[in-house]
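[step 3/7] fold_predict: job queued, chain A
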Amino acid sequence: MFPGLTGAQTDFTFPFQYLAKEHVKATVDGASVPFTWISTFTIKIEPAPVGELRIYRDTPRDSLINVYSDGSILIDDDLNASFWQSLMVADEVADAALTKGEDGHWDAVGLRVTNLGTPVNPTDAVSRQWAETSMTSTLAQAISAKNSAEAARDAAIAARDTAISAAGTSTAKAGEAAASAAAAAADKATVANDKAIVAADKATVAADKATVASDKATVAADKATVLGYKNDVAADKATVASDKNTAINARDAAVAAKDAAEAARDIALAAAGSLTFARINANGEMEFVLNDVVVAKLTPSGTFLTKGDIGINQTI
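[step 4/7] structure written:
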C-alpha cells in the first residue's frame, strides 16, 4: 500500500511472492491501472500515480495450477506450485476476511462494510443511509421546534409593539391638534399680511401703467418727428444725386469734344508732315503722295479736280 502519492514516483517495489506475473495487480484509489515490469519485484506505472496505490496478488482460486492423473510422474516444481497456490489463496482469503484486533474488536482495515440490514437492537451496526435518514428526521424536528419558538417570539414582540404604538398614537394626536391650532392662527396672520402686500403691489402696478402710457405717447411723438427728418434727408439725397448726374454728363461731353478736336488736330498734323510731292503727270498736274498713294493733285490753273486736291488761293 502506497498512500498519499503526489505524482512524483513511477517505480514501486513489493515484497510478496507470486506464481505468475498476471496474478499481480495494481489500483489507484480503487481503480485498476496498467503497469510494466522492471524486475521480479518492481513495477513501473506511467503516468506517475496520484492518490493511494495498492499492489496486490490475486491468485486464481477457481482453477488448479496443476492437475494430476494416476500414473503420472510427480515433479517437485509442479508439487511446489500446487502447494504455493493453496497457501497464497489462503493468505488472500485471510487478508480479505474481517479479523479481530489485539483488543478483541473486529478490524475492517480501512475497507467498507456493505449490505447492512436495518438495525433492530440498540447495539446493531447502521448503514450510512439509515444514519443520514435518522439525522435528517432529527434535524427537521429541531428546525420545526426552532421555527415554532421564533414564531411565538415574533408574536410577543408584535403585541408589545402594538401597545407601544397605540400609546404613541394618542400622544401624537394630542400634539398634532395643538400644533394644528397654532398653525391655523399663524396662517391667518400670514394671509392678512399677504393681502396688504398684494394691495400695495396693485397700487404700484397702476402707477407703473400710467407712467408707461405717458412714455408711449412721448415715444410716438418722437417717432413722428424722426420720420419727418428722414423724409427731408431722402429728398435732399435725391436732389444731390440728380445734380451729380448732370455734372457728370456735362463733364463727359466736354471730354469727348476735347478728344475729337485733338484727334482731328493729330490727323491734320500727320497729313501735313507726311504729304510728299511725287511727280508731274502727263496732264501737267502736280501729284502729292502719302505712303506712295496719290492723295492730292495741283493743276496749272489752280482749280480743284477731285475731292482731296490741294489748290492755291481757292475756296472749298
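[step 5/7] annotate
Residues 195 and 201 are 10 Å apart (CA to CA).
DSSP finds two helices and twelve strands in the chain.
exit 0
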